Amino acid sequence: MKILMFGWEFPPHISGGLGTACYGLTKGLVKTDTEILFVVPKAYGDEDTNAARFVNASDVETVGTQIELEKLWGNVSFIQIDSTLVPYVDEKEFNLCASLETVENIEKHKDIFRHKYSFTGKYGANLMEEVARYALVAATIAKNNEFDVIHAHDWLTYAAGIMAKRVSNKPLVVHVHATEFDRTGENVNPNVFNIEKQGMEYADKVITVSNLTRNIVINKYGINPKKVVTVHNAVDFQGREEIAAERSINDKVITFLGRITYQKGPEYFIEAAYKVLERCNNVRFVMAGSGDMMKKMVRRVAKLGIGTRFHFTGFLKGEEVQQMFALSDVYVMPSVSEPFGISPLEAMRSNIPVIISKQSGVSEVLKYAIKVDFWDVDAMADLMYGLVTYPSLSKFFVKNGQAEVNSLKWENAAVKIRKIYEQVANNK
Predict the structure, then answer these.
(1) Paired residues of 37 in beta bridges
(2) What is the 3-state secondary structure (H, E, C) of 347-415?
(3) Are 163 and 135 contacting, i.e. CB atoms less than 8 angstroms apart?
(4) Sheet holding 310-314, edge to edge
């Protein structure tokens, strides 16, 4: 079976868990005799080609046209409007393009409008523009390749998935790794919400990474429960060597590792840290990551007067993450709304006891992780204190957690997703 898969990032060039999940899943799918054509906005050439065959969207020559995104989501057709979504054309070309009404007419003028877009593949100020261009490129890729099913990861690629389905009439599966409600709470960006909703509505099947996310998709987006299925994430330790880190201090280390954003609950970690330091002074806290709340968190640490016991590392990747785990005695994920959460699994694999919020998808599959409501900083502080104070408690969770996490394999998730592919393909 051949799958046309759209992603936004892929290791080793990642900003978070999305790229890591895509990598693990593709490696698992290969073992199910599934051939994957993986499209990214910008490929660097050092991606693992054993997992998939890559298409660099920046290298694809496509047909330039004007697309009104709101109408696109409404009726999924090519509509030419007086907009500036396609840059680098002069007035004559712009007016001619705006007069075209069908894909067939565009084809007649393709020599005029052939164009390559340069993608950054980042999450900057021009993100929406890149999402729109990526959809145009997706149409070209879908037209020029053979495949059985389209698989689009997260809202950034839903437009691409819709366009590919429109061109090929092949079934579309969208994979929800997070929703706008996870990222922002109730202060949702209406543009992102609409893209997510239309992608889910247009999909033949919606995969969510947890039952927590499935409930959000059904209740917040109004998607038919019959087409929403949960496939929990896993973790891939193949080829990863154990790292031993030498400590220059005897203090215990409690670590937060993730984006410093609303979704991850960094403020609750800081408040709990303050309460722990009121009881003992042989503990240090590390906040590893970056995000829009970084400055606010630094100010809060300073105001609480715990700066000498609190460290900000900035964004970590690859071996840096493993080194941080090797230096840690406790890992905490106090997420406000976490669709899944792979980092606790990585921590457990590194022989670290973990504290996770009950508002996380990964809590659905773990027995030997300590669970707490993200907002209950008193309970969180008690748990932190207990794990660094009582060795037997820590050893219990380390021993049982190691065995538990080793059973969560991407191969198992891949088998479930392969069955979903077969189901939607046979329904066509």
Answers:
(1) 4, 53
(2) HHHCCCCEEEECCEHHHHCCCCCEEECCCCHHHHHHHHHHHHHCHHHHHHHHHHHHHHHHCCCHHHHHH
(3) yes
(4) 310-314, 283-288, 252-257, 330-333, 354-357, 370-372
What b-and-e string marks burial along 195-210, b requiring 16 or more CB atoms within 10 Å of the CB? bbbbbbbbbbbbbbbb
**Nearest-angstrom CA–CA distance, 139 and 167:** 6
| DSSP state at residue 85 | S
Tokens for 111?
């020599």
Pairing of strands 310-314, 53-56: unpaired
Within 8 A by CB and 6+ apart from 268, the residues are 334, 374, 375, 377, 380
Q: Look at residue 17 in the predicted model and tell me its pLDDT.
A: 77
By three-state DSSP, how is residue 205 classified? strand
Give the pLDDT means over successive 10-residue stretches in the chain (428 positions). Answer: 94 81 92 94 88 91 53 41 35 37 40 67 79 90 95 95 94 96 85 94 96 96 97 78 71 94 95 96 95 95 96 89 92 94 89 95 93 97 96 93 86 95 90
Residue whose tokens read 């149409």: 139
Does pTM surpass 0.90? Answer: no
Peptide bond preceding 334: is omega within 30 degrees of 0, i.e. cis?
Answer: no
Sorted by where each starts, the structural domains of the chain and their CATH numbers stand as 2-234+412-427 (3.40.50.2000), 252-406 (3.40.50.2000)
Q: What is the pLDDT of residue 241?
A: 62
Distance between CA 279 and CA 332 in Å, rounded? 18
Euclidean distance between CA atoms 198 and 426, whole angstroms? 23
- What integer pLDDT is reported at residue 67 of this predicted model? 45
H-assigned helices in 145-224: 158-168, 180-184, 190-202, 211-221
Query: Does residue 241 sit in helix, strand or coil?
Result: coil
Positive or negative: CA dihedral 23, 25, 31, 32: negative
β-pairing, 205-208 with 172-176?
parallel
Distance separating alpha carbons of residues 243 and 275, to the nearest angstrom: 31
